[in-house]
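lol forgot to send this yesterday, sorry. struct tokens for the thing we talked abt
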């Protein structure tokens, strides 16, 4: 009879783990030492390795001939006739436009940059420090505008056509002097001096000029992206949603000077039209009598933006996912086409006609910036039978080759949740393909088809019933289960199934939904299975030799950290923090994960160190440190290389002084006094810099790196395109080195990061960002499926719990069973 995994007795499942010596007795606190305070390092120099390649980038050089100019900031307060504060950027811009038309002489004819809210900027001062004006509008409404709360890809269009009415047509506007912002602050930053708030303020003013120009031309504004409401820019995505093409433009300081970064941007909006038509279409009914008003939220349909975004996120989750995929597919441009689009956009925007810019002596080049790139050497991989392979164009394969360390599968079965397929055929082909790759797979113990009575039950009930069928046929749990799902993506079965297997029973499982079974498909499946069961598909050749600089001789742990957030605007769904840590040092290809829930939308990970009342630590890092120690021959990490995903420049100091501090505290809690050396690197994919070959025909080659001209003038960053761009235009990863106590030289660090794009065990191609970061994202994504409610009729607010202090918290995630907690279950 199958039995559940019992796990361990102590919190966190660590009672069977060996301690990290020297461990202080439980009643003795570790010696207290001062925690280091970190500051972001300056660039130590540029890399030299690799072959040179001339490139172009979507940065346009900006000349500034009046750095002595000073922006004067004024606070704007707008009130209606009944003294209510007027908010809304659309109406605000309309009022301020009328103000300038009416009172230009009082303002000495000085044009201004207005952010649509509470701030106005001029080059040089206005005649007075305080003004009060009365404005009369004939139509007291304005089109809505996103104030930056939505990112690209958000459903923002519903609010775009909503109207904001006011009872009066008369408004009072008060303008007060607030501060001076010298343009010279940008000049200081360009010279490599440490930038401060004044630099960011000055850049913000320049960006506001771009936003004001776009708003005046009738654009939808989403942060620094601008979208013209023109049918030729629409992409029909189905389901009442359209994609909208536009442009991102923002000023930035670079090593080559001030530049304008311009890129193609897309967003999703609701298709313009009556709400009733929208509901009829999406509910697939022909008459309003058949509309499900509960789903549509009839009583609040006047709040079209809020309710329909909510409607989409709760009722059409899979539809939205498919629509985003469709948007990406239909928005792709080949490198040459994108280059031409960007050059045309900058030329057609006529920035040289903007008075605020010309008063500062600002002119913008209309050609893509030329940059020097390098192509790093492709890492060599070690595979089975003592062979090596060198990837070509970022890819390799296992045709007529075997895996480096294939596993042996002797206790397994296949289950099918009503997918139309032949389980016998699938199992035979998998065994045959595995044999070719070196994996010995015995015949499965059994093949189980879901009984027809279960097919209409809830996902949790279907999973429970499947396990009942398994218990009827097996005397003990298998080591592996191949699970066939009817839907390729967004299956309701997936979350409950993974939770039951990984948490309750400690069974490794692989889900598939095959449309066509061939050798390539089966090989990809086997790569995942082999990794999950402890095998190794390939290693970097340098992992098997003493040639990993500064890592081979000193125990070094690599961390990948990411936080996954719930849908936009929903604060009742927790964020998921995931950290993966390397194991089996000196290898850098093997990882395990630790995952926790935390407050919705919170980006900093708060469970890295989690002290309990008994003095023990139930945090993420303790799990990973103990696992490193046990899997690395009793060695404790003396160096930690940390890759952090998903944070912006404004959060870099928080990473250093909140998250790194927690890691140190977790280390100390284990009785350690000597703090490890840290190298902390932020990996960003969500940016707008693109690289092009000068010819423009093809994407840049895999391994292309740029660490001059378009990089930060002072801090240590670079762009790396490790992967082969097969469709559209490649987006490089943007790496920021925050601290480097380990002391890598630029070439060694850049080559290490490049190599970590080749250790991703799920595929036979280089990936766009280092594998530890990708693994952390996968772990968070998979574990988040555990949060799906058993009763599908409940709302997501069932996740929330209220503490005695009134703080909204979320229940802990179930921990993985001890049999799989150290596995690469996320592969």
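and heres what i got for the seq, position by position
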């Amino acid at each position: 009879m199958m039995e559940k995994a019992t796990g361990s007795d102590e919190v966190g499942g660590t009672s069977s783990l060996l301690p990290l010596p020297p461990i202080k007795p439980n009643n003795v606190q570790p010696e207290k030492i001062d925690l280091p305070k970190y500051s972001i390092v300056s660039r130590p120099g540029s890399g030299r390795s690799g072959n040179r390649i001339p490139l172009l980038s979507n940065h346009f050089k900006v000349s500034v001939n009046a750095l002595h100019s000073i922006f004067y900031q004024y606070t704007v307060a707008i009130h209606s006739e009944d003294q209510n504060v007027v908010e809304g950027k659309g109406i605000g811009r309309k009022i301020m436009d009328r103000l300038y038309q009416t009172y230009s002489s009082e303002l000495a004819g000085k044009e201004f940059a207005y952010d649509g809210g509470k701030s106005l900027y001029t080059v040089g001062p206005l005649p007075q420090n305080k003004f009060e004006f009365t404005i009369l509008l004939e139509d007291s409404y304005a089109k809505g505008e996103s104030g930056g709360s939505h990112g690209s890809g958000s459903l923002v269009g519903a609010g775009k056509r909503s109207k904001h009415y006011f009872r009066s047509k008369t408004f009072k506007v008060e303008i007060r002097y607030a501060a001076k912002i010298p343009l010279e602050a940008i000049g200081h930053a360009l010279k490599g001096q440490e930038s401060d708030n004044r630099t960011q303020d000055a850049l913000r003013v320049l960006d506001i000029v771009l936003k004001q120009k776009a708003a005046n031309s009738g654009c939808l504004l989403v942060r620094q992206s601008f979208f013209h409401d023109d049918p030729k820019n629409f992409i029909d995505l189905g389901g009442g949603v359209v994609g909208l093409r536009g442009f991102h433009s923002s000023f930035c300081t670079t090593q080559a000077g001030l530049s304008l970064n311009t890129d193609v941007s897309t967003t999703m909006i609701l298709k313009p039209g009556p709400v009733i038509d929208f509901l009829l279409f999406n509910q697939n009914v022909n008459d309003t009598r058949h509309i499900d008003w509960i789903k549509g939220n009839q009583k609040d349909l006047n709040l079209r933006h809020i309710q329909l975004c909510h409607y989409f996120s709760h009722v059409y989750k899979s539809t939205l996912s498919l629509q985003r995929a469709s948007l990406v597919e239909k928005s792709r441009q080949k490198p040459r086409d994108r280059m031409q689009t960007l050059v045309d956009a900058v030329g057609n925007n006529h920035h040289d006609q903007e008075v605020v810019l010309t008063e500062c002596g600002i002119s913008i080049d209309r050609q893509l910036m030329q940059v020097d790139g390098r192509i790093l050497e492709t890492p060599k991989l070690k595979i089975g039978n003592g062979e090596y392979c060198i990837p070509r164009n970022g890819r390799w394969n296992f045709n007529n080759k075997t895996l480096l360390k294939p596993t042996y599968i002797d206790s397994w079965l296949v289950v099918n949740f009503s997918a139309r397929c032949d389980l016998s055929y699938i199992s035979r082909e998998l065994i045959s393909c595995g044999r070719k790759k070196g994996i010995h797979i015995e015949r499965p113990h059994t093949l189980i088809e879901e009984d027809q009575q279960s097919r209409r039950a809830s996902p949790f009930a279907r999973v429970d019933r499947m396990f009942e069928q398994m218990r009827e046929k097996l005397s003990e749990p298998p080591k592996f289960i191949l699970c066939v799902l009817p839907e390729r993506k967004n299956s309701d079965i997936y979350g409950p199934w993974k939770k039951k297997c990984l948490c309750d029973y400690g069974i490794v499982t692989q889900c598939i939904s095959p449309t066509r079974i061939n050798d390539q498909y089966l090989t990809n499946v086997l790569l995942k299975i082999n990794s999950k069961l402890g095998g190794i598909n390939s290693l970097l050749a340098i992992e098997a030799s003493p040639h990993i600089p500064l890592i081979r001789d000193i125990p070094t742990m690599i961390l990948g950290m990411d936080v996954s957030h719930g849908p936009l605007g929903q604060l009742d769904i927790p964020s998921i923090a995931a950290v993966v840590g390397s194991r089996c040092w000196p290898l850098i290809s093997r990882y395990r994960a630790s995952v926790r829930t935390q407050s919705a939308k919170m980006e900093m990970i708060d469970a890295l160190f989690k002290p309990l009342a008994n003095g023990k630590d139930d945090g993420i890092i303790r799990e990973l440190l103990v696992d490193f120690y046990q899997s690395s021959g009793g060695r404790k990490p003396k160096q930690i290389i940390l890759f952090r995903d998903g944070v912006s420049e404004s959060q870099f100091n928080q990473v250093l002084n909140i998250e790194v501090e927690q890691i140190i505290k977790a280390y100390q809690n284990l009785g350690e006094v000597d703090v490890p050396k840290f190298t902390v690197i932020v990996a960003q994919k969500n940016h707008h810099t693109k690289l092009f070959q000068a010819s423009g025909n093809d994407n840049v080659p895999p391994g292309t790196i740029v660490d001059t001209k378009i990089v930060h003038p002072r801090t240590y960053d670079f762009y790396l395109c490790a992967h082969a761009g097969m469709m559209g235009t490649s987006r490089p990863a943007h790496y920021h080195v925050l601290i480097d106590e380990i002391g890598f030289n630029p070439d060694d660090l850049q080559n290490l990061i490049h190599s970590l794009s080749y250790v991703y065990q799920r595929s036979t191609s280089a990936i766009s960002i280092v594998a530890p970061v990708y693994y952390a994202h996968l772990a968070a994504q998979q574990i988040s499926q555990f949060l799906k409610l058993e009763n599908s009729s409940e709302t997501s607010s069932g996740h929330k719990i209220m503490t005695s202090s009134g703080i909204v918290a979320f229940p802990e995630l179930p921990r993985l069973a001890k049999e799989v907690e150290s596995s690469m279950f996320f592969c």
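Residues 197-216 form the longest helix (20 residues). anyway ping me if u want another try
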